[in-house]
Amino acid sequence: MECLLGLLKVKVVRGLNLAICDPLSHSSDPYVVIHLGQQKVKSSIKYKTINPEWNEELTLSITNMMLPVKIDVFDHDTFTKDDSMGDAEFCILDFVEVAKKDLNGLPDGTVMKTLHPDKDNCLAAESHIKWKDGKVTQDIFLKLRNTETGELVLHLEWVSIPGITH
């Protein structure tokens, strides 16, 4: 059995300028699927929008911080296979390494690490891993791949498991 490091709360905040998959209504019916290893969690469907507001929290168990978090955005279709609206992925290694440190006593809002967009990640903007309200958090803007347009806004929060030390 793999060792549980902690839980990663992924708040799917919103999508921006997603692809139009339903040309008649000039919109889409998007939802998000997040994969980490064998785990798969899914958001609700937001109907008739290319700028959906989810504000939904999905939780992943972290046992291997080397695995990337993979995200797929789909357009829900009633009678046919759902259309892909793009995908993205991000690495949680830096996030988990910061979360494993003893940060108690640090000033609220301390930036622990800054990540920059580059060819190896899907970041659309600079992202900061912060110590905020007694938690390790990160806001991420992801540029979707394999599509012409679209970004996702996520908020990450680490949940330590009492009794587990690393």
TrEMBL record:
GO terms for biological process: abscisic acid-activated signaling pathway. Its main location: membrane. Keywords: Abscisic acid signaling pathway, Calcium, Cell membrane, GTPase activation, Lipid-binding, Membrane, Metal-binding, Nucleus. GO terms for molecular function: GTPase activator activity; lipid binding; metal ion binding. It is found in: Cell membrane; Nucleus. The keyword Calcium applies. It holds the Pfam family C2. Belongs to the plant CAR protein family. This is C2 domain-containing protein.
